[in-house]
């Protein structure tokens, strides 16, 4: 695999941004690892959590080694504390992640597939919210999404938050968020009714995680709507030893090299 640390200008944010990118490389002589490559390759957008940045998946997991075995490109963008959202008071991070970033990556790395069937998104915690949002609000771009310990019920997450803090600047009040573009429950319902392509979804959360109830509620909602959902839970809380294991499960779950059903 090739690991690139990229800096580029974002028109939607009006500033320079960073993303770390893993690209497939066919190799046979590396110690303990063999890489796969192809003329075009699928791409996973891998999203970080609230306290992290674009480097965290490399620092806490062996994502480069896992991706090498699959022949998949991995894009790890920095989005600061944005919650992958066009903020109430702030910057247009949703527009950046869901529209501009895939367009830029396909221009800068032309062997990345442009097909929806080859474009995936996953993340943890805040990034789990971002991944599900990409799938439910930009399903023309992303065919599969995986959330690990995701903050999936943003309305309940906002309850009790001050009206002069970070979450208010991003989302407004819980009343404003309910039913809005940023509400994943509303997004799932609206996409189901729209006639647009539905993504395949994967959710995992530890039963001791403080976000566990978010995931249980989302599971019930998605199953009621009839989404293609793989839901798993197991003992665990909010930490990297679980996410390191589960990102491997996600890579096995993705339909790599297969046509979308």
Descriptive tags:
261 residues; alpha/beta; eight-stranded mixed sheet; 8 strands; 36% helix
Radius of gyration from CA coordinates:
17 Å
Quote the average pLDDT. 95
**So what's the overall shape?**
globular
Q: Stretches where pLDDT falls below 50 for ≥5 residues?
A: none
Summarize the model shown.
The chain has 261 residues and is α/β, with parallel strands linked by helices. Helices cover 36% and strands 20% of the residues.
Give a structural overview.
By secondary structure, this protein is an alpha/beta fold. The protein is about 35% helix and about 20% strand. It has ten helices and eight strands. It has helices at about 55-60, 65-70, 95-110, 125-135, 155-160, 165-170, 175, 185-195, 210-225, 240-255; strands at about 1-10, 15-25, 45, 75, 120-125, 145-150, 200-205, 230-235. Strands 1-2-4-3-5-6-7-8 form an eight-stranded mixed beta sheet, sandwiched between helices. The longest helix has 16 residues, at about 95-110. The mean pLDDT is about 95. This is Esterase family protein.
What secondary-structure arrangement, pairings included, does this model have?
Layout: E1 2-10, E2 15-23, E3 43-47, H1 56-60, H2 63-70, E4 73-77, H3 93-108, E5 119-124, H4 126-137, E6 144-148, H5 154-158, H6 166-171, H7 174-177, H8 184-194, E7 200-206, H9 212-225, E8 228-234, H10 240-253
Parallel strand pairs: 3-4, 3-5, 5-6, 6-7, 7-8
Antiparallel strand pairs: 1-2, 2-4
């Amino acid at each position: 695999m090739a690991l690139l640390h990229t800096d580029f200008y974002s028109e939607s944010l009006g500033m320079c941004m960073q993303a770390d990118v893993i690209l497939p490389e066919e190799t046979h002589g590396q110690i303990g690892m063999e890489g796969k490559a192809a003329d075009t390759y699928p791409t996973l957008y891998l999203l970080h959590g609230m306290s992290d940045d674009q480097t965290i998946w490399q620092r806490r997991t062996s994502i480069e080694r896992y991706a090498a075995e699959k022949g998949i490109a991995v894009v790890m963008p920095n989005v600061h504390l944005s919650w992958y959202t066009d903020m109430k008071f702030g910057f247009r991070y949703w527009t950046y992640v869901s529209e501009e970033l895939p367009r830029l990556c396909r221009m800068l790395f032309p062997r990345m597939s442009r097909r929806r069937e080859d474009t995936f998104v996953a993340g943890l915690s805040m990034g789990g919210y971002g991944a599900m949002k990409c799938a439910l609000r930009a399903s023309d771009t992303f065919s599969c999404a995986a959330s690990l310990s995701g903050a999936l019920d943003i309305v309940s997450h906002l309850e009790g938050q001050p009206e002069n803090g970070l979450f208010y600047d991003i989302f407004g009040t819980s009343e404003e968020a309910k039913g809005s573009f940023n509400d994943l429950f509303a997004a799932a319902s609206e996409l189901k009714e729209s006639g647009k392509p539905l993504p395949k979804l994967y959710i995992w959360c530890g039963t001791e995680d403080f976000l566990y109830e978010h995931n249980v509620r989302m599971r019930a909602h998605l199953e009621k709507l009839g989404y293609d959902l793989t839901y798993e839970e197991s003992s665990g809380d909010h930490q990297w030893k679980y996410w390191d294991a589960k990102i491997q499960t996600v890579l096995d779950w993705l339909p790599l090299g297969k046509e979308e059903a």
